[in-house]
Amino acid sequence: MTLYEEILQFDEFFTSIRRHDDFLVFDLKLPLNWEDKKILHNRGDKIQMNPGKGNETHKIVSFFTPFSEEGTFLLVTEIKAIIKWNKDIEEKSNLLSLKKLELEKMFSENNVDSLRKLEFNFAPNNILDETGREETKGILVAPGDIEG
């Protein structure tokens, strides 16, 4: 992959890339509500970060690592994980809002007896844990009685 293609992956967030002494520094403009420090910490603090100035909606964050092939690969990997985790959170929030509207409509259009039989079943899938790592889990909600 070319340098252009690597940078293009971060296009909407990319601000700059530079070498400072023996470090590679990658600057991104991220939404204010995004988690970054917590995700890096939960993933083992493999790279470092330094929050910079921002505005009302975005913050500038500098991610850095020793300038080496391994360090550069790690930097890109960790930044991708931060972006993916935060985008997934945003998508989950949007999906939750949509599903709430669907449920409200369902509850307003159906009688109580049919709603009592309502179940939510999920097939096993990959989900992200609080560290941003994918984790395979089984059924999230199992059928059961009211107490179960």
Notes on the structure:
The protein is an alpha+beta fold and 148 residues long. The chain has one domain (3-111). 39% of the residues lie in helices and 27% in strands. The protein is built from four helices and six strands, in the order αββαββααββ. A four-stranded antiparallel β-sheet has the order 1-2-4-3. β1 (14-20) and β2 form a beta hairpin.
Helices and strands in order:
Blueprint: H1 3-8, E1 14-20, E2 23-31, H2 37-42, E3 48-54, E4 58-66, H3 69-109, H4 112-116, E5 125-128, E6 134-137
In short:
The strands form two sheets. The protein has a four-stranded antiparallel beta sheet with strand order 1-2-4-3. It has a two-stranded antiparallel ribbon with strand order 5-6.
Low-pLDDT residue spans: 138-142
Biggest sheet features: 4 strands, antiparallel
Which structural class should the secondary elements be placed in?
A: alpha+beta
Fraction in beta strands: 25-35%
For the record, the count of structural domains works out to 1
Adjacency order of strands in the biggest sheet: 1-2-4-3
Tally of alpha and pi helices: 4
Work out the number of β strands. 6
In which range does the helix fraction lie? 25-40%
Please write the string of helix (H) and strand (E) elements: HEEHEEHHEE
Average pLDDT reading = 86
Q: Give the overall shape, derived from the CA principal axes.
A: elongated
User: What's the gyration radius in Å?
Assistant: 21 Å
End-to-end distance? 51 Å
